[in-house]
């Protein structure tokens, strides 16, 4: 249900009968208005801003048609009372809440909510203070939702938690004429001991991954060397070329040691003897 459809609900209410006493008071109000004209006219005019709506009560009853505005309205003295409601989006910072997660870890979580009043009449007659009630309900909902999550879910599934909170709050505040537009989890603070334990665990995981990668690299290098040795053993000329390349690399280092290479054939004959 969107804000436009909800804004139409509850606005068209039949005007209740004033009764004899109400009619008398209305007549007296008109009489006073005529006697003290134009001063009474100045006191009876009400200007409502573009972002406001005015809920007018006549002898304690809401006038038919719901909230009025924006524009200029006339109030009958001593009979009508007016309450202006701000329809703009408002935001609240939920103070940090100490929450015990499902895996028995205490964390401090704070959040922010964005909401607006879509029905000024409901927000006036159904709840004493719509803003304060929404703020208190948001803090309670935050504790209830996070109490069913484990620590890993609280740290990684913030978007899902925010969506769940928005759904619950929007449903609960609908009778108050409040539409919760957005919920954001700002920060999750862990105890110092838990931070140290998580850091040690992360470091151990990194070391384990490094050892696994090193072992895999050595295994691949050993396989490559074995394949190269098998290929070179089948061709004596390839072995001689590799031998000469190694001597060239040693000579390029400008060492003081002089090496006299022996032919590969001589080495092979000595190895046979």
From TrEMBL:
Give the highest taxon in the source lineage. Eukaryota
Is-annotated flag, keyword Membrane? yes
- Keyword DNA repair assigned to the entry: answer is no
Q: Where in the cell is it found?
A: Membrane
Q: Name one GO cellular component term.
A: plasma membrane
The Band domain, residue ranges: 43-202
Q: Which SMART domains does the record match to this protein?
A: PHB
Where is the chain membrane-spanning? 21-42
What SUPFAM superfamilies has UniProt attached to this entry? Band 7/SPFH domain (SSF117892)
| Entries under InterPro entries matching the protein | Band-7_stomatin-like (IPR043202), Band_7 (IPR001107), Band_7/SPFH_dom_sf (IPR036013), Stomatin_HflK_fam (IPR001972)
Per UniProt, the keywords (alphabetical) are: Membrane, Transmembrane, Transmembrane helix
Stated family: Belongs to the band 7/mec-2 family.
Q: What is this protein called?
A: Band 7 domain-containing protein
């Amino acid at each position: 249900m969107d804000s436009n459809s909800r804004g139409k609900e509850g606005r068209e209410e039949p005007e209740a009968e004033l009764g004899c006493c109400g009619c008398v008071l209305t007549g007296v109000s008109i009489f006073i208005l005529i006697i003290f004209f134009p001063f009474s006219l100045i006191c009876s005019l009400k200007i409502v801003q573009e972002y406001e709506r005015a809920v007018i009560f006549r002898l304690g009853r809401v006038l038919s048609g719901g909230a009025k505005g924006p524009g200029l309205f006339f109030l009958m003295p001593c009979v009508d009372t007016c309450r202006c409601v701000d329809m703009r989006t408002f935001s609240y910072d939920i103070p940090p809440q100490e929450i015990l997660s499902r895996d028995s870890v205490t964390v401090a979580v704070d959040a922010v909510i964005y909401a607006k009043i879509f029905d000024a009449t409901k927000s006036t007659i159904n709840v004493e203070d719509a803003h304060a009630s929404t703020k208190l309900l948001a803090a309670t909902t935050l504790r209830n939702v996070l109490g069913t999550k484990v620590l890993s879910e609280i740290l990684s599934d913030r978007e899902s938690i925010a969506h769940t909170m928005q759904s619950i709050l929007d449903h609960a505040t609908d009778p108050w004429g409040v539409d919760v537009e957005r919920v954001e989890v700002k920060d999750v603070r862990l105890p110092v001991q838990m931070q140290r334990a998580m850091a040690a665990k992360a470091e151990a995981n990194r070391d384990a991954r490094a050892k696994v990668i090193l072992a895999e690299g050595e295994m691949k290098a050993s396989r490559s060397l074995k394949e190269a040795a098998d290929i070179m053993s089948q061709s004596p000329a390839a072995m001689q070329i590799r031998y000469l390349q190694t001597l060239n690399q040693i000579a390029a280092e400008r060492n003081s040691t002089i090496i006299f290479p022996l032919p590969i054939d001589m080495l092979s004959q000595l190895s046979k003897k």
